[in-house]
Amino acid sequence: MSVAAPRVVSTQSTILGARVNGRVRGLWRRGRWIVLGFALLLVLPLAGSAAALRINYAGDLREGTQSRGKDAIWLGHAWVDGRKKDADLAAFAARIKGTGIRDLYVHAGPLEHDGTLPAARYPRAAWLIESVHRTMPGIRVHAWLGDVLATEGPEGLRLEDAASRAAVVGSARQILDAGFDGVHFDLEPLLSDDTNYLSLLDDLGELTGSRKVPLSVAAHQIDPLPALHSVNGAISGSEKWWSQEFFGQVARRVDQIAVMSYDTWMPLESLYGGYVAQQTSLALEVTPEDTDLLMGLPFFHEDDLGHHDSAETVAAAIRGTRLGLGRTDHDRERFGVALYVDFAAKEEDWAAYREGWH
């Protein structure tokens, strides 16, 4: 017995271990299929979307899908704070001569979190406006105003506060009194379906309409898949896109809407170009004919999760823009591109813009 007992225990342990191991192996096999199933649920739609974007980037460019002379460029704060001089302006005038650039979005902010704008932030505005009007006839100088919104954190401008919205309108009035030809707003991160933002645009539109000057905004990208902004918000707590319906509601309230069609996460140039083509079509479908629609071009160079420099090229953005325009609204006149941003641009960006769009 003293010899047999350990054998019984050993045998029982072996049987029990085999059963446990069998269950573990069974669970592992089932687990692998579950994991594989979830992976396929994620990968297959992504693979399908990637294929669709590649297809969207293919095809011939339609004749006539080039500059309408309604392009814009975002300019840095150095143009109004004293760093830029006459020589800089002369060089810039030579740079844009013969292009379709008509509007300059000159950074004159940022706004304070309460919506106000200290006049000390744009001491050289009068010099810039007068010099542009004198040396570049037909070019309009807009004040680019913006701030971080308190939508994803505790700090920032709160659009739900009526007093803050009134202060933003007051800042726009102040900037127009300073001589700017228009006002351009970039408020981020701006969640889709924000009725307070629509209310602000209504109030700003009354002001700019009475002054007969353009109101323009920088716009988030449109859901590439239905309700994707809601799904992304539920998963990450952040919304990257606007619904197409909300984009249209914004576009109907402004004179110009410029899509920030960069920072798209796209890893390949073909995918990025196809994405821009899709964004162009989605925006054209809901932008009124009497509103200027501009598609953003990435005149900057970074490498991070949102922007891959080798993928988000000016050439790909222009090709995508032309493909979307040709497929959706070939004859649209109030259409252009917006270049972001002057101080980060390279010669290759300017060359791609001239070669691809003119």
What does this structure look like?
The chain has 10 helices and 10 strands. It is α/β, with parallel strands linked by helices and 358 residues long. Helices cover 47% and strands 15% of the residues. The strands form 2 sheets. It has an 8-stranded parallel beta barrel with strand order 1-2-3-4-5-8-9-10, surrounded by 6 helices. It is globular.
User: Which shape, going by the Cα principal axes?
Assistant: globular
Q: How far apart are the termini?
A: 98 Å
**Please, what is the average pLDDT?**
88
Taking pLDDT < 50 over at least 5 consecutive residues as the criterion, the unreliable ranges are 1-44
How many separate helices? 10
Strands, count: 10
The topology string of helices and strands comes to HEHEHEHEHEEHEHEHEHEH
Q: Percent of residues in helical segments?
A: 40-55%
Please report which band the strand proportion falls in: under 5%, 5-15%, 15-25%, 25-35%, 35-45% or over 45%.
15-25%
CA-atom Rg in angstroms = 27 Å
Biggest β-sheet description: 8 strands, parallel, barrel
Strand order of the largest sheet: 1-2-3-4-5-8-9-10
